[in-house]
Amino acid sequence: MVAGLEPDMKILATLHPHGVIATALGSADGLDFILRFFAPSFGIPEDPVTGSAHCTLIPYWSKQLGCKHLVARQISAHGGEIVCEANDDRVGIASRAVLYLEGTISICPDGN
Questions:
Q1: For position 103, what pLDDT does the model report?
Q2: What's the CA gap between 94 and 79, in Å, rounded?
């Protein structure tokens, strides 16, 4: 059901200013839950892998499934698998990643 979603991005952009998550219980291949994340109001029709969406869903699925260690897959076209851990008021996520930006930020104490 989640995999087959074909949302109207114009309508979806009006529903929530940040994004919309679609999620479901995982399948028999070792996944605890699956998800897709849509953020057309930010110019991102579908985000490939969204850490913040996982952070929102980890407490929910941990409670539903009664376990602290979870495996999730974002099933977008370029999706990925995330290993998740629920720790009281915090969550942990881990996955493979690719460095795409590196830089330096300077903060001036006087605001200039």
A1: 94
A2: 14
